[in-house]
Amino acid sequence: MTLPFDVDAVRADFPILETEIDGHPLVYLDSGATSQKPRAVLDAERDFLERANSAVHRGAHTLAAEATELFEDARVTVAEFVGAEPEQLVWTSGATAGLNLVAGSLGYAGRLREGDEIVVTEAEHHANLIPWQELAARTGARLRHIPVLDDGTLDMHAAADLIGERTKVVAFPHVSNVLGIVNPVAKLVTLARGAGALTVLDACQSAPHLALDLPASGVDLAVFSGHKIHGPYGIGALWGRDEVLESLPPFTFGGSMITTVTLDKAEYLPPPQRFEPGTQPVSQAVAFAAALRWLGAHDLDAARAHEAALEKRMRDGLRSIDGIRLLGDTDAADRVALQAFTVEGVHAHDVGQFLDSRGVAARVGHHCAQPLHRRFGITASVRASAAIHTTQAEIDTFLDAVSGVRGFFGVASPTGAPGAEAGVGAGTAGVNA
């Protein structure tokens, strides 16, 4: 049964939204960093731990069998959410672990050597940059990047020039965690396939907001995290095409991933178990599946239309405030309801503290994307990111608070380019995520 989308009914499922900050109702606009959890998720994890807690794939007793069944049922649910088969879904502790698994496995497999190239974008989260930096350094491969244009979109002319016969991997975000812009997956996949390169998609910011069909997208591998889709911490997934996963050796080693072990060597299970050694995040997987079942019970087309309206209201409202510089300010690209900005003359951390005093929770810092901030000539920004439970009234509260920032700090009206002084002054170095 699909529930009609009613934002007030959705909000009632989130206990934390009843919180007050300094006497103000909480306006949570930091879902891009971590999402809030509905009761169904909290109850699912608690119920597992109280009723079925046991190691999976390791015992014949009743609890072990029940835990294993719940664990593998969760894999089916999460795989279905991205249009995949369960054997194509590897459990990880999060997207960062999944990307390190892929980069490390490629290194073990000897798939890259001196003279090969890895292509990323200038808009990468550090989790989809540093593993490739390290792989390039260890193999002698060259790391190259697709530039970001002034409007925040990728320079696809440069991409066509960069991706060529030496390219072995093309890794890129589906949605920028700073700009909120949906990148042209099909075009990048076409370029990569033409070069015979492997494609790796960071779907962390798209999975909560867009309908995903990873097999149909054309990418070879993709990662996403549970805690950004109303699930718990400590759980994520790596999806891969059958032939790609089968071609990769394991990157971490231990029990539960093997068929036969002698004192001299080991033989490994097929994917996904090949990549899942040791004790698994069982309660987290069960709760992750509960999050996706909860989400899927709603009219997601209506929910996405609601989020699109929030995005427009937020961006149009920020545009109307003096001294605001939007990062990736373009109407020409698909977007999710996530926007980073600077306030002229006021450091991002000071903006964040002012917003917090009004009950508005927004992200400040470099958002684990220092190169992208450097591209725009700043060290830090403020990021507001909405979710299925966000209301238009909350966006208005946020905009009203932003409009009061410069007056509170006694900053004069803009005299030069918007944001000219952003990123300097008060505050500390940028924070993560």
TrEMBL record:
Q: What molecular functions are annotated in GO for this chain?
A: cysteine desulfurase activity; lyase activity; pyridoxal phosphate binding
Query: Which source organism?
Result: Microbacterium enclense
Q: Name one GO biological process term.
A: cysteine metabolic process
Q: Which PROSITE patterns match?
A: AA_TRANSFER_CLASS_5
Q: What class of enzyme is it?
A: transferase
List the keywords (alphabetical). Lyase, Pyridoxal phosphate, Transferase
The protein's superkingdom reads Bacteria
- Please give the function described in this protein's UniProt entry: Catalyzes the removal of elemental sulfur and selenium atoms from L-cysteine, L-cystine, L-selenocysteine, and L-selenocystine to produce L-alanine.
Q: Name one Pfam family in it.
A: Aminotran_5
- EC number(s): the record gives 2.8.1.7
Q: Which CDD domains match?
A: SufS_like
Q: What is this protein called?
A: Cysteine desulfurase
The record ties this protein, via PANTHER family, to: CYSTEINE DESULFURASE (PTHR43586), CYSTEINE DESULFURASE 1, CHLOROPLASTIC (PTHR43586:SF8)
Q: Which residues form the Aminotransferase class V domain?
A: 27-398
The record's catalysed reaction(s) read: (sulfur carrier)-H + L-cysteine = (sulfur carrier)-SH + L-alanine
Q: Does the keyword Phosphoprotein apply?
A: no
Ranges annotated as spanning the membrane: none
